[in-house]
Amino acid sequence: MSNVFSFTGTIGRDAEVRTTPSGQSVLNVTVANNIGFGDRQQTLWIRVALWGKRAEGSFQNYLKKGQQVFVSGELSQREYQANDGSTRTSLELNANIVDLVGKRNEPAPAQQNHQQPSAATSSPSSFDDFDDVPF
User: Fold this and answer.
1) Residue 93 located in a structural domain
2) Per-residue pLDDT tens for 1-19?
3) Torsion, CA 55, CA 56, CA 62, CA 68, rounded to 10
4) Are 45 and 97 in contact (CB under 8 A)?
5) Residue 49, class by beta-carbon neighbours within 10 Å (0-12 exposed, 13-18 middle, 19+ buried)?
6) DSSP state letters, 101-119
Protein backbone atom coordinates (compact mmCIF):
# COMPACT_ATOMS: atom_id res chain seq x y z
CA MET A 1 0.00 0.00 0.00
CA SER A 2 1.28 3.44 -0.83
CA ASN A 3 0.39 6.87 0.44
CA VAL A 4 0.97 10.11 -1.44
CA PHE A 5 0.72 13.46 0.28
CA SER A 6 1.00 16.65 -1.78
CA PHE A 7 0.94 20.22 -0.53
CA THR A 8 2.27 23.71 -1.06
CA GLY A 9 4.06 25.58 1.67
CA THR A 10 6.82 27.96 2.62
CA ILE A 11 10.34 26.91 3.52
CA GLY A 12 11.14 27.76 7.13
CA ARG A 13 14.90 27.20 7.05
CA ASP A 14 17.48 26.94 4.25
CA ALA A 15 17.92 23.42 2.88
CA GLU A 16 20.86 21.29 4.03
CA VAL A 17 22.51 18.43 2.16
CA ARG A 18 24.18 15.63 4.08
CA THR A 19 25.76 12.33 3.14
CA THR A 20 24.85 9.12 4.96
CA PRO A 21 27.63 6.74 6.11
CA SER A 22 26.76 4.55 3.10
CA GLY A 23 27.49 7.50 0.76
CA GLN A 24 23.91 8.41 -0.21
CA SER A 25 23.01 12.12 -0.34
CA VAL A 26 19.94 13.48 1.43
CA LEU A 27 18.56 17.01 1.21
CA ASN A 28 16.58 18.11 4.28
CA VAL A 29 14.26 21.10 4.44
CA THR A 30 11.40 22.08 6.76
CA VAL A 31 8.22 23.37 5.11
CA ALA A 32 5.32 25.21 6.76
CA ASN A 33 1.79 24.42 5.59
CA ASN A 34 -1.09 26.57 6.85
CA ILE A 35 -4.42 24.84 7.35
CA GLY A 36 -7.76 26.30 8.37
CA PHE A 37 -8.59 29.99 8.32
CA GLY A 38 -9.34 32.88 10.62
CA ASP A 39 -9.06 32.12 14.32
CA ARG A 40 -8.74 28.41 13.56
CA GLN A 41 -5.72 28.67 11.28
CA GLN A 42 -2.70 26.66 12.36
CA THR A 43 0.68 25.87 10.85
CA LEU A 44 1.91 22.33 10.29
CA TRP A 45 5.68 21.97 10.07
CA ILE A 46 6.70 19.08 7.84
CA ARG A 47 10.26 17.77 7.58
CA VAL A 48 10.96 16.96 3.92
CA ALA A 49 13.78 14.67 2.74
CA LEU A 50 14.87 14.32 -0.89
CA TRP A 51 17.21 11.36 -1.49
CA GLY A 52 19.91 10.31 -3.95
CA LYS A 53 20.90 12.15 -7.14
CA ARG A 54 18.02 14.61 -6.76
CA ALA A 55 19.60 15.83 -3.51
CA GLU A 56 22.95 16.54 -5.16
CA GLY A 57 23.92 19.54 -7.25
CA SER A 58 22.83 23.13 -6.87
CA PHE A 59 19.12 22.58 -6.10
CA GLN A 60 19.71 23.34 -2.42
CA ASN A 61 20.75 26.89 -3.41
CA TYR A 62 17.17 27.58 -4.50
CA LEU A 63 15.52 26.13 -1.39
CA LYS A 64 15.93 29.12 0.89
CA LYS A 65 13.85 30.41 3.78
CA GLY A 66 10.68 32.09 2.46
CA GLN A 67 10.61 30.23 -0.88
CA GLN A 68 7.25 28.70 -1.71
CA VAL A 69 7.35 25.08 -2.87
CA PHE A 70 5.08 22.27 -4.02
CA VAL A 71 6.02 18.96 -2.40
CA SER A 72 4.73 15.43 -2.98
CA GLY A 73 5.80 12.13 -1.50
CA GLU A 74 5.22 9.53 1.20
CA LEU A 75 4.12 10.94 4.54
CA SER A 76 5.00 9.36 7.87
CA GLN A 77 4.59 10.32 11.50
CA ARG A 78 7.29 9.80 14.10
CA GLU A 79 7.07 10.11 17.87
CA TYR A 80 10.08 11.08 19.96
CA GLN A 81 10.96 12.14 23.49
CA ALA A 82 11.70 15.84 23.88
CA ASN A 83 14.35 17.15 26.27
CA ASP A 84 11.65 17.93 28.84
CA GLY A 85 10.50 14.28 28.80
CA SER A 86 7.27 14.87 26.89
CA THR A 87 6.34 12.83 23.83
CA ARG A 88 6.28 14.87 20.62
CA THR A 89 5.13 14.07 17.10
CA SER A 90 6.94 14.94 13.88
CA LEU A 91 5.52 14.80 10.34
CA GLU A 92 8.10 13.63 7.81
CA LEU A 93 7.82 13.32 4.06
CA ASN A 94 10.13 11.33 1.77
CA ALA A 95 9.72 13.51 -1.30
CA ASN A 96 9.39 12.35 -4.87
CA ILE A 97 8.72 15.88 -6.14
CA VAL A 98 9.92 19.26 -4.93
CA ASP A 99 9.05 22.16 -7.25
CA LEU A 100 9.60 25.88 -6.76
CA VAL A 101 6.37 27.90 -6.77
CA GLY A 102 6.56 31.64 -7.33
CA LYS A 103 9.25 33.87 -5.95
CA ARG A 104 10.87 33.85 -2.57
CA ASN A 105 9.08 36.11 -0.06
CA GLU A 106 11.41 39.06 0.18
CA PRO A 107 10.65 42.46 1.65
CA ALA A 108 9.52 44.93 -1.00
CA PRO A 109 11.99 47.73 -1.72
CA ALA A 110 11.05 51.05 -0.18
CA GLN A 111 9.26 53.31 -2.64
CA GLN A 112 9.61 57.06 -2.75
CA ASN A 113 6.50 59.04 -1.84
CA HIS A 114 6.03 60.59 -5.29
CA GLN A 115 5.91 57.25 -7.11
CA GLN A 116 2.67 55.33 -7.58
CA PRO A 117 2.79 51.55 -8.08
CA SER A 118 1.73 50.48 -11.54
CA ALA A 119 -1.35 48.31 -12.03
CA ALA A 120 0.84 45.42 -13.17
CA THR A 121 2.87 45.39 -9.95
CA SER A 122 0.17 46.12 -7.40
CA SER A 123 -1.53 43.20 -5.73
CA PRO A 124 -5.02 43.00 -4.28
CA SER A 125 -5.18 43.69 -0.57
CA SER A 126 -8.07 41.34 0.17
CA PHE A 127 -10.48 38.89 -1.38
CA ASP A 128 -13.03 41.70 -1.74
CA ASP A 129 -11.08 42.84 -4.82
CA PHE A 130 -12.18 39.68 -6.64
CA ASP A 131 -15.93 40.38 -6.67
CA ASP A 132 -15.99 40.48 -10.48
CA VAL A 133 -14.36 37.06 -10.96
CA PRO A 134 -16.84 34.89 -12.95
CA PHE A 135 -16.34 31.66 -10.95
Assistant:
1) yes
2) 478 999 999 999 999 999 9
3) -10
4) no
5) middle
6) -S----PPPPPPTT----T
